[in-house]
Amino acid sequence: MKALVIGGTGVIGGGVVKHLLARDADVTTYDRNRRGGPLPARVRHIVGDRSDARAFEQTFETSHYDVVVDLVCFTPSDAESTTRAFAGRCAQVQFCSTVCVYGVETPAGVLIDETCPLEPPTRYGQNKLEAERVFERAAARGAFAATIVRPSQTYGPGGALIDQLELDGTTWDRVTRGLPVLCAGDGLGLWQATHRDDCGKAFAYAALNPKTYGEAYNTTLDRVFTWRDYYREAARALDCAVRVMFVPTRWLFEERPERFPFLRDTSQFHGAYSSAKARAAIPEFRATIGFEHGARETLADVRRRGAWRLADTDPDYDRLVARAIALGFPVVDA
């Protein structure tokens, strides 16, 4: 199998490449940098910027692949560029979409599956959904088979470990120093975090699997946990305890209207998904890496790369904590 992974050195890309190689695929990656560290010797790496559509398409104008995995397609114009580049020159395109294409309402069964309404509230989710439609139209006219993959929060070496409020904050340094960290609400919101190597299985084993053609799949860890669980297990990964201040979500938005877009758009809502459909079509897709183990690996990698964010570089966070203490919000063990 000849595979191209666009964004193959990113976080999810690392997992995809690992499992494609396990299938003995001939793998090429295309991206701007190598955040995930050195690639295996068997992998061909092409340096380029897919946002330069003309250069991107020219790079592949004489290439043929069995499967193209597009991990850095964020807009319908990106999807149109991928379609122009590979229509008639690959058997299957896999598009990395997102669970953010769903609405924010919690369904009756709590877990969001692929039958739930596609009502993205954010521009990010709207763009991803429009890109899905581009690939679906291309497949309908015979350009290639299309498979849509919808990960939730995916983490691992090469990236940061989010907290509930921010994508790359100073929370984990605060935990190591015994400083209080903020959590919106009562910490009982539902969440899922999937290690990149588990998510990568879905892409790698959906490759050239006819059951996946024309389908969309959630690809998440089966376990659903609360933000209290998340903070507690991430702290254990740092060999620490965690001291948390539960504060009203609305209060955070009033205090810092511009600071917490991730909380406003995503993490204030339940993020609990079913991947039963993916497991049925892709038997090899089983998420087995526990969060504490994965967090330990990820946070150690953040330190190794010199990407660890120090608490004393974020005095605004200290001011928020002081304000919360003055208002009487307690500090508790998560």
CATH class of one domain: Alpha Beta
Helix content: 25-40%
Mean pLDDT: 96
Distance between the termini: 47 Å
> Which architecture of one domain per CATH?
3-Layer(aba) Sandwich
Shape: globular
Task: Give the count of helical stretches.
Answer: 12
* CATH topology value of one domain: Rossmann fold
Structural class computed from helices and strand pairing = alpha/beta
CATH homologous superfamily caption of one domain: NAD(P)-binding Rossmann-like Domain
Radius of gyration: 20 Å
Q: Unreliable segments (pLDDT under 50, ≥5 consecutive)?
A: none
Q: Enumerate the strands of the largest sheet in spatial order, edge to edge or round the barrel.
A: 3-2-1-4-5-6-11
Strand content: 15-25%
Number of strands: 14
Largest sheet: 7 strands, parallel
The topology string of helices and strands comes to: EHEEHEHEHEEHEEEHEEHEHHHHHE
Provide an overview of this structure.
- The chain is α/β, with parallel strands linked by helices.
- The chain has a domain at 2-155 and 193-218: Rossmann fold (3-Layer(aba) Sandwich).
- The chain has helices at 11-22, 53-59, 76-86, 123-140, 171-177, 196-206, 227-237, 249-255, 261-267, 276-281, 291-304, 315-326, and strands at 2-6, 26-31, 44-47, 65-70, 90-96, 145-150, 153-155, 181-184, 190-191, 193-195, 216-218, 225-226, 243-247, 331-333.
- The relative contact order is 0.15.
- The model has no long low-confidence stretch (mean pLDDT 96).
